Amino acid sequence: MQTHEILQNAAQTIAITSKDLSVTADDLSTLANQLSSDLAQVCQNGEKVLEDIKKTTDILRFVSDIAANSNLLGLNAAIEAARAGEHGRGFAVVAEEIRKMAVNSGKSVENIATILKTIQHETSKVVSVLVKTTELGNTQASSTGRISASIHQLAEIAANIQKVADSV
């Protein structure tokens, strides 16, 4: 009788613990899958940012060309203003301001390009870490799924032991 009671208590404890573990493992598996999915999405977003940065390089090249051409136009305008003598003095001031704006625009383009290269480099590092983390998340999700399946199997065994204990 005492053996029967010990067997029945052990079977109930195993059954309850297995059910708790099963629920927890299922929750972990769900969370691991969600984490893996979210990391993959963040990785895709990072890659999109890198693509957009590459597109801005073309735009910066265009603005740089405009700045260089504006500088030449300002220089030519200054030459023509000098030829005009006293009548071209006002135009010479405008030409000089155009040249200053062109030089400042060119420097700004260079600064922006430097900043974008830094952003691109740092974003590449982030994406690289995200790729590795996504792989880890996938591995974790897979492992958690296997643990969950094992715990479900353990719960079935515990239920069978409970049936045997009840019948004894």
TrEMBL record:
- Coiled-coil annotated residue ranges, if any: none
Residue span, Methyl-accepting transducer domain: 1-168
* SUPFAM superfamilies listed in its UniProt record: Methyl-accepting chemotaxis protein (MCP) signaling domain
A Pfam short name: MCPsignal
Gene3D superfamilies given in the database record: Methyl-accepting chemotaxis protein
Keyword annotations for this protein, in alphabetical order, are: Transducer
Q: Which domain of life is it from?
A: Bacteria
Q: What is this protein called?
A: Methyl-accepting transducer domain-containing protein
